């Protein structure tokens, strides 16, 4: 987990701090600057027994320098340790799917917990960010295979629904044509128009049986 700290500008607490520590010095401009500190990523076991590597960032500042010196030996180190412990405890109660989908909510809950716990140290935790969650390689492959199988299953369902809708439409069309001889003749003419548009050298005209029967009857 990484930490970003705001070193406070000393005000009225300066004299108290000088009396409480012989090594206290006047703050320089570097004492007021922000600095960034990194730590190794934490290996955390989730509620569903998955080991994940988590990298987070805690933004905090010392808002009461007197408490930071009087109530804790090393406020910076203590805050870092508390943040790492809180991260493990919170994520240990979550399933992997919750960690991946609810990062913002988890980070907000951690911020509230840390801010309350560090209040007696004069520390103000501004916010917490869960920047990265890395899964084991084997789990990544398994999840990718599962996602691919799910996509293929959905594609098959969509194709089956399309076939069913097409079959239903064909059935309804055949019923209409069967009930209406005029509709059958219209369909026949449409088919002839389509064939003629192909510009083939030889065209075979299909004729309905009832038309052929009419021609044969007329000959006799």
Q: In a nutshell, what does this entry contain?
A:
With 220 residues, the protein is an alpha+beta fold. The chain has two domains: 2-135, 2-Layer Sandwich (Tetrahydropterin Synthase, Chain A), CATH 3.30.479.30; 140-199.
Protein traits:
Tetrahydropterin Synthase, Chain A, alpha+beta, rod-shaped, 220 residues
Secondary-structure topology with pairs:
Elements: E1 2-6, H1 14-20, E2 34-37, E3 42-45, E4 51-62, H2 65-70, H3 75-91, H4 96-101, H5 103-117, E5 123-134, H6 137-179, H7 181-196, H8 209-219
Helix pairs in contact: 3-5, 6-7
Number of helical segments?
8
* CATH 4th-level superfamily of the largest domain: Band 7 domain
CATH class bucket of the largest domain: Alpha Beta
Q: Helices and strands, in N-to-C order?
A: EHEEEHHHHEHHH
* CATH fold-level assignment of the largest domain: Tetrahydropterin Synthase, Chain A
Largest sheet: 5 strands, mixed
**What CATH architecture of the largest domain do you see?**
2-Layer Sandwich
Number of domains: 2
The number of strands is: 5
Tell me the radius of gyration: 38 Å
Per DSSP, what share of the residues sits in E-state strands of 2 or more residues?
A: 15-25%
Gross morphology? rod-shaped
Give the low-pLDDT segments.
Answer: 7-40
Secondary structure category? alpha+beta
């Amino acid at each position: 987990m990484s930490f970003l700290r705001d070193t406070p500008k000393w005000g009225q607490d300066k004299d108290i701090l000088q009396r409480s520590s012989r090594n206290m010095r006047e703050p320089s401009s570097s004492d007021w600057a922000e600095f960034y500190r990194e730590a190794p990523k934490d290996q955390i076991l989730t509620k569903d027994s998955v080991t994940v590597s988590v990298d987070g960032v805690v933004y905090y500042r010392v808002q009461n320098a007197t408490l930071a010196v009087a109530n804790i030996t090393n406020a910076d180190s203590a805050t870092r340790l508390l943040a790492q412990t809180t991260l493990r405890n919170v994520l240990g109660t979550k399933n992997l799917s919750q960690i991946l989908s609810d990062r913002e909510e988890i980070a907000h809950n951690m911020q509230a917990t840390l801010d309350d716990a560090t209040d007696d140290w004069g520390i103000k935790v501004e916010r917490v960010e869960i920047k990265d969650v890395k899964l084991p390689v084997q789990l990544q492959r398994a999840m990718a295979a599962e996602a691919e199988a799910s996509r293929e299953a959905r594609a098959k369902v969509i194709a089956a629904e399309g076939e069913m809708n097409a079959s239903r439409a064909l059935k309804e069309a055949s019923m209409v044509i069967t009930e209406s001889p005029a509709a059958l003749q219209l369909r026949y003419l449409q088919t002839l128009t389509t064939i003629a548009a192909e510009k083939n050298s030889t065209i075979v005209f299909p004729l309905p049986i009832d038309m052929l029967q009419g021609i044969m009857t007329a000959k006799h």
